[in-house]
Automatic annotation (TrEMBL):
Protein name: Glutaredoxin-like protein
Gene3D superfamilies in alphabetical order: Glutaredoxin
Pfam families: Glrx-like
Family per record: Belongs to the glutaredoxin family.
Source organism of this protein record: Balaenoptera acutorostrata (Common minke whale)
Length: 116
């Protein structure tokens, strides 16, 4: 009886650690959606509202282009915000294109599922 309990405990421990590892991996596997913005930016505020239903599928990173350290982004996007990059690649500008966002998120999620 003790042998069985010991093995069950080892199995439960192993399963628990595997579960934690998978949860941890899925957290870090979320894509990063970068929003290039400034204050004020009514179109950016509107875009964030449109993104609300998707917020559990990416990490939103906001970059204020008016800060001195972001002057290169300011020079590039000063007339185009909001601008979005997904995992460092340009995705869209001016408004959220929901179909484009959905397509790219699904693509990344499928790649992530296939890689597991």
């Amino acid at each position: 009886m003790l042998w069985f309990q010991g093995n069950s405990m080892q199995l439960a421990k192993h399963s628990f650690h595997r579960l934690l590892r998978n949860l941890s991996a899925s957290k870090t596997a979320l894509p990063v959606l970068t929003l290039f913005t400034k204050d004020p930016c009514p179109l950016c505020d509107e875009a964030k509202e449109v993104l609300e239903p998707y917020k559990n599928r990416f990490i939103l990173q906001e970059v204020d282009i008016t800060l001195p350290e972001n002057s290169a982004w300011y020079d590039r996007y000063k007339f185009d915000i909001p601008v979005f990059h997904l995992n460092g690649q340009f995705l869209m500008m001016h408004r959220v294109d929901v179909s484009k966002l959905e397509k790219q998120l699904q693509k990344l999620e499928q790649q992530g599922a296939g890689g597991s």
